[in-house]
Amino acid sequence: MYIILVYDVNVKRVAKVLKVARRYLTWVQNSVLEGEVTEAKFRALQLELERIVDRNEDSLLFYVLGSQKYAKRQLIGVQKGGEEWIY
Fold it and tell me: What predicted TM-score, i.e. pTM, was given to this entire model?
């Protein structure tokens, strides 16, 4: 499955969330990561992030796509991270 993670967390937790998420996904822009993962790795990522975030203050948004084959991204402006699959 192809996952896009968008997060909005308190500044105290940003570095921790990014560190965990980068073990599973590729950083593409501030607060955005994406990548192909198995269901087991997706669940592991969710569990690790749930231990870090404060559900009353933070937000994690996962877009779950069947495959990267059906995803298309268009960039306007500065490239900030991994763009290897967009061409």
Answer: 0.81
What own/partner pairs with CB < 8 Å and gap ≥ 24 does 68-74 have?
A: 68/2, 68/36, 71/2, 71/4
**What size, in residues, is the chain?**
87
For residue range 33-82, list pLDDT tens digits in order: 999 999 999 999 999 999 999 999 999 999 998 766 666 666 666 777 76
State whether CATH 2.40.160.20 applies to domain 2-70: no
CA 14 to each of CA 27, 42, 73: distance values in angstroms, whole numbers, following the listed order: 13, 19, 24
Place of tokens 């994690």: 60
